Amino acid sequence: MVIIITILAYFSILLVFSRLTSRRATNDTFYRANRRSPWYMVAFGMIGASISGITFVSVPGMVVKTDMSYLQMCLGFILGYAVVAFVLLPVYYRLNLTTIYSYLQTRLGQRAYKTGASFFLLSKLIGAAVRFYVVCIILQRFVLDQLGVPFVLTVVIMVGLIWLYTRRGGIKTLVWTDSFQTLCMFFALLLIIYHVTSELNLSLGEAVTAIANDSHSRIFIWDDWASKLNFWKMFFSGIFVVIVMTGLDQDMMQKNLTCKTLRDAQKDMCTYGLAFVPVNLLFLSLGILLMMLANKEGIAIPQMTDDLLPMFAATGSLGTLIIVLFTIGIVATSFSSADSAITALTTSWCVDIMERKDDEKLRKRTHLGFALLFVVFILGFKIVNSTSVIDTIYIICSYTYGPLLGLFAFGLFTRWQVKDRAVPYIAIVSPVICFAIETITRQTTGYEFGYELLMVNGLLTFVGLYLCRK
């Protein structure tokens, strides 16, 4: 009952934010927040929006198999955010864009524009629904099943509440609700860490020393070139992951485009880019502390490392307060990513596909339609109920971002025009060729591609556009 009350209280606060920020809301308010958002609010809120509910659960468990090597990628994130801030943002602000894919129309043509927007819609809808499904399953299994709440009701209510507080104010509402949700996420994370260190009978200083001396605190891996965890692979992958999945993603860029000026947007981007290293260091440190606690209490580390945090935080072994904090943390991180995804999908469909930016009725119907699609996709994943299928969907989504990288790189770094009719075919063929290269390489040499597949995919798209240049 405490959990239900906590969740209801949490959403009541979100609805208050929605009410305050959606007065006299127009389509421009929904899409761009009238370009009046304070940069520091956007920066703080983007931390929570970039950390999904899966990240909240998964990153602490990463230390079991990969130590703290994830921080190598986080260091690459910093440089990636600098590229987005000083290469992409000036272009977007100069053209006064509502959606970033409008740039492709200006630079390459109508079909390139529609192709970029379509790839975004496909990958974002499926990817965001999968991530939200995984969070719903975790919350259901560890919290709501004990309360007798059916999964269908969980999904309908959670997606319905997201629709309710974003339907009028859109991105303007999200700038403020994301800041609140980031605050809740930090509050939950820090209190869980404090509680775990207390269970280990450690002071804060002793906990820091214990983490630093633990064998799983290794960060840098220089020697194994074939490993996915090699420093240079993860560092450069981190750069390109940010460029593509932030700088070329309408969902992640829409809030940044609500800042008053380009300078404000650049300050916002660089600020939250730098924040990723300490934030993920906290999550990974929690993972090491949880492993220490499991060892102290003679509890086996779960085979599914994602279950490390829920095993302690959601089962009651650390008390009711930790269950409440875990629920707040996972709801805050999952909602701050899902709400912006639905808003960005609505924006891209109305502006890019339908090209009816000022049609308020279309925007409202589209927003409701994507919320319903979310419910359908999530319940569909539950029916399939296969981890291998979910993993396959994730892989497909990772391939769909490569053509966006190639399209924007060709537009920004060359002056050539392309045969516009060929662009959709290039964008489809490139991921197929990339998949074939990855499969053959793995089978013949044993080398496993990691995130560098994104770079290969983007390069193939770039080469295809070059071959079809006018």
From TrEMBL:
PROSITE patterns: NA_SOLUT_SYMP_3
Organism the protein comes from: Segatella oris C735
The keyword Secreted belongs to this UniProt entry's keyword annotation: no
Transmembrane segments: 6-22, 42-64, 70-95, 116-141, 147-166, 173-196, 231-248, 269-291, 311-332, 366-387, 393-413, 425-443, 449-468
Recorded superkingdom: Bacteria
Keyword ATP-binding (UniProt): no
Keywords: Cell membrane, Ion transport, Membrane, Sodium, Sodium transport, Transmembrane, Transmembrane helix, Transport
Location in the cell: Cell membrane
Listed GO CC annotations: plasma membrane
GO MF, one annotated term: symporter activity
Membrane association type: Multi-pass membrane protein
The protein's name: Sodium:solute symporter family protein
Gene Ontology process terms (BP): sodium ion transport
Family statement: Belongs to the sodium:solute symporter (SSF) (TC 2.A.21) family.
